[in-house]
Amino acid sequence: MIDRIDKEHCCGCLACKSICPQKAIGIYTDEKGFQYPTINNKLCIKCGLCEKVCDFISDKLNETEPDCYSVCASDNEEVISSRSGGFFSILAKYVIKKNGVVFGCELANKNEISHTYYGNIKDVNKFKGSKYVQSDLKNTYEE
Asked: N or C: which terminus of the chain has fewer CB atoms within 10 Å of its end residue's CB?
């Protein structure tokens, strides 16, 4: 079980909240508006799933040094309209072609960012562009 969660060691992904079978992890919003997990020790059964899913607590970051790869789309228009060299679009098109769905972050209105999923490339294009704020993950991990 995570005894406490320091903001310095948390990216705010809330994967721990999503995996908790007892719903013992809630959310608090700090003075700057960022969301972080908080633990209700009365509900916690100490299963350890929150620690396993957290990349910041587990030893996953220290297991091996990853290789580094660089990818760029061959379609120049795709590269220009993207922030990832067009790699996101390449992956999204592949997943959709295989009858999958693509999850991403979109600008819902001028001040709200949220995660959702789409199954067609036209809608997936809504995920393009950088968004330098914390998004509302809602139930995307469960979905």
From this structure: C
